[in-house]
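tool=predict chain=A
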Amino acid sequence: MPTYTIETTYRLPAYRHRSYDAETPAQACRLAIEDEDWTGKKLDYETAGENYITGIWLGADAAYKGSSIPVPPHFEEGAQRRTAHFEVLLGVLKILTNDALASRIASQDWLTKASWAVAKAEAILADARGPDEPNDTGTSVRGREEPG
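tool=predict ok
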């Protein structure tokens, strides 16, 4: 049975309390965002993020000593999964919207891709494994999603 070295990560928020003189709340927020001085910051252990996988290597104690293995998307950070899939959803929505505005019937291929994209989005929101990606003929092919 093979041994894998897994790098697991979580985000730990840092925060600061600082006062800003400003005309509006939006201006005060802008000043806070642009303020690069984090002297006196505090780490917020109460709201640490989820655990997620950032690296896999074959072998014991093999981190950064050789080629890494792709991380199955289900084990990536949820925010990253949502961000990456947003572009897919936007692309499918644009195609279907253009067809509707041009009074064209959407192709079965695009409807299949849209259904897959919605199912994958639902899986991402549920922190579950996504469906296999459809190929150009509408049948499923093994996507990057792996069992979790």
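The first strand starts at residue 4 and ends at 9. The radius of gyration is 22 Å.
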